[in-house]
User: Fold this.
Amino acid sequence: MVFIPLSKKTSVGSRQEIEEGKAKIRICGGVFYNPHMRLCRDLTSLCAGAIGKRISVADVMCATGARGIRYKLENRNVDELSLSDISQKAAACARKNAKLNNLECKVSRADAKKFMRENSFDFLELDPFGSPQPFLHDAAHMLHKAKESYFSVTATDMPVLCGAHLLACLKNYGANPLNNEFCHENAARILIGRTAMEFAPFSLSATPIFTLSHRHYIKIVFLVQKGAQKAASSIKSLGFVSYCPSCCWRQAERFPEGKRCPSCAGALQIAGPMHLGELWDRKIAQKMLSLNKERGLHGWEEAGKILGAINEELAVGSCFYWDLHTLAKKTLRPIIPIQKAIESLRDAGYKASRTHFCPTAIRADAPHEEILRLVRA
Ligand SMILES: C[S@@+](CC[C@H](N)C(=O)[O-])C[C@H]1O[C@@H](n2cnc3c(N)ncnc32)[C@H](O)[C@@H]1O
Ligand SMILES: [Zn+2]
Assistant:
């Protein structure tokens, strides 16, 4: 355990105390706390609970400690908790907050990279400013010590992952992004793909069990399993998406072939490598929904709405949502109401739902020509 004792002189000027989930959190001067990330903490805490089996949690960029403290307070399956942060002020604040919530846990001031190399926990929480990519290698170092573990990671560099900064995405994630209507799903898939590639040489698979896209960030929780075969199967789920910006045709492929759109002969754009498999574990997502109702913590309605949408979209099971506004613009037709679009597709025998990624989009297993027929009808 890396432990840098906190200086007795460290001053943690307290500004206010708030309640979040089951925790009381003192917001200390100079320590990062974002109230807009509460929903992310709500949902990730539910995910930690839905895992069910006993876990030890390390929150290695803890700031006030809000995440780790909530995971422990709200979930009986969390045994041990360790909070750490590189900032002296943050570590002192997290220690105060642990005490405020009557929690016995280790709190240390530590660089996350060093901490992850030297320690072993079953659930690693990594919540950096911006891109998590510089920390993925050291995360694999921590996680390869166990046969099975969990990795919860946040990325807030959405302009990079969504294709506004092409070179930064190539450099940081080794992937070509797409600045199009389903860029948020691409962003999640690129981060998952990058994590799988970083973990595989450690003989670790990285299977997403929960994916969230909200505001300016994405959050992924992975099941990480040891084994060469498992690691290889994570890599086999990587591929590319070919996309036509003229008519929205798209295709997920391991090795893209065509240069021209088969629907309108327009030039295709290609993004990836990215994860092309499932984004959620069905049982975990259902369990999160039921736990959320049982607990009824403050803000549970908003979490319930997102979990409801996620449970519907995962049952559809196809990659890349269809944005009705973009389709209307490209086909020069009026925007079709979302409920009507879903019902028409269902009536025609397809699976269709809303998607939590975008309020104006649907997820459907219908082919492109069927979607165009619907929009032009
Ligand atoms: C986005 S904040 C974490 C927010 C917190 N998880 C929450 O939900 O309230 C990022 C934190 O990472 C810390 N940090 C930045 N670089 C670090 C590093 N290399 N090692 C450990 N902590 C680091 C910062 O001091 C900051 O407190
Ligand atoms: Zn086309």
Q: What stands out?
A: The first helix runs from residue 38 to 51.
